Structures are given as C-alpha cells and as structure tokens.
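INPUT
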Amino acid sequence: MGYTLMPMTEPAGSLTQMRKGALEHCVLALLTDEPRYGFDLVRRLGAVDGMLTTEGTIYPLLSRLRREGLVETEWRESSDGPPRRYYRITTEGQRALDTFRAQWRVFRSAVDTLVGEGERG
Amino acid sequence: MTAPHAEQIIAGYLARLDAALTGVGRDAGAELRADVTAHIADARAELDGESDADLLNILDRLGEPSALVAEGLAAAGASTAAGVPAGEAGPAGPGSSPAPGSTPTADTTRLLAFAALTVMIAMPLFLPFSILTGGPVILGLLLAHSSKVWRRTELVAAFSLPLLSILIGFLIASAMSRHWAVFFELGMVSFILVPSAIYLILVAGRRGWRAPATV
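OUTPUT
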C-alpha cells in the first residue's frame, strides 16, 4: 500500500507546513478590499517572496475555502477573453481572518521572543 | 505572438493533468482543469512576445499536475475531516478514493484510539461469559478503525484472533458449567485481548499515536 512514516523533522517540511497554514489567511486578506480572480491572487501572492512556491496549489485551496463557506464565487465577464471566476470573502471568512490575525500576533511575538536569532544581546 | 510550440507544450501539460485526474470526481476534475486553463491563458496574456521558454516557465511555476491533484485531494480530505461536507464541485467528490491527508485532528485521533483500547479491554471484563463479549470487541474495532491510527492490516492482525476465539470460546463455554465458563472467558480475555491491545499500543506508540502517512 506504500505506507511510510511521516518525516516530522525536516526543516523544509516545517516551512511548507507553516506556509500552508498562513497562505489561506493571506488569500482571505487579499480579498477583503475587493473580489479577485484566481490569477490576480497568484500575481499578488507571487509579489511577496516565499509565499507561493507552486502557483497551481492556489486553486485547490480556493475551492476548499469555498466549500468551507469562507469565500463565495461569481462569474464575471472580462474585457479580454472568457468570463472569470471571482472570489469574494464572506462574513464567515472575515471572522476567520480576524481570529487568525489575533492569533498570529501572539504567535509571532512568541516565536520572536524564543527564537530571536541571537540578534539581541 | 504565439510561441512556436505553444500548442504542443500546453496540450502536453493538460494531458498530464487529465492523467492525474483519473479517479477524481468529474465535477472536481473539471473545475481544477478550468482553473488551470484560465491561469495559463491569463499568464500568457501578460507576456509580450511569448517564447517556448516563457510557456515552460509558466507551467513550471504552476506546478506538476500530479502535485496539484494531490493538493486538491488533501484539501478535500482536510475539510471533510473538519466536519465540512464535500461540496458539489470539490477537488474530490464523495466516492473518490480517500485522500492522503484525510485524517481527523490529532486530538480526535488519540481520543478515539484510547477509547478503542479501553472498550476493547475493559468492557469484556464486565460482560464475561457470553457471546456479548464480542460486542465491545467489535465496538473497539470500529473505534480503532475510525481513529485511523492503525492500518487495516494491523487491525486484522489484532482483532481476528480475539473475535474468532470469542466465538469458539462461547461454543465451548456454553457446554461448560456457568462457574467454569466465567474463568474460561476471563482467561481468554486476558490471554488474547490483552496481548492484542499491547500490540496495538506498541504499533501506535512507535508512530507517536498518529495516523500512518501514505506516500
């Protein structure tokens, strides 16, 4: 059946896990101003280094967010080509984002304090 | 301006995507395919004067088709495990094969695993000397299965002997006097169920009470 134990201690793996957890909230944050279509999100996430290594993974992520009711979609005509699927954040999505923001602040300062990179002192 | 081999390059990518989508729910597959097609069109529209290399770069950044499909299945599994019903057009519709990531959260997993072991060991002690002993053991098996901590083969190894011996034990015990039957069943429980439980604990402990990862 091809089972193996999960590698738990790879640094690259932990970065992937962290990015995964943060990515969906970054997507929600990008949608707070206005509805956006998939490639637009990819472009904006791509502008920030290290956020989106495999662009295509955004699409399964978006469809999960929709199933979880955090975003909703609508088709809109585009001036140059076929209609595009736009994603809009829902009230529930906004709530999830607010919660994440609060937790992230605490988490970030906790890690900064503990890891600290030996910058201070 | 179209790249010299644009058609072949894109068709090749989409063919690999289609191959990776085999067995994924039709709606989900169509959705991912449409997203990917739109992505390629949008990315191409941004180029002025595309070359074959530009197209290959777009596809490289997009990712391997099999990785995208795996991601979709994992995402579908994650939301299903979180109690969110799979939508009509999710990456993995109901009925498709379980996703590698379709495990309950760590806490639920452990709780279910411990409940399984408790039910399996403790309950038969309160219900000895009858075929009823099989009830808690089957309940334990179901709990153990839903916890996903153990592989199917491990569960078969741990539970087939107890269930078989409960059946045979009942047949033998029913031929004995009630007094002896109690000892017989208690002995059976301690000699067969306890080793089975110890085996399950050892297997799960080695994995840190987590579901085995599929790769």
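end of record. Chain A touches chain B at residues 1-6, 8, 37-39, 42, 46, 54-57, 59-64, 66-69, 80-82, 84-85 (CB under 8 Å).
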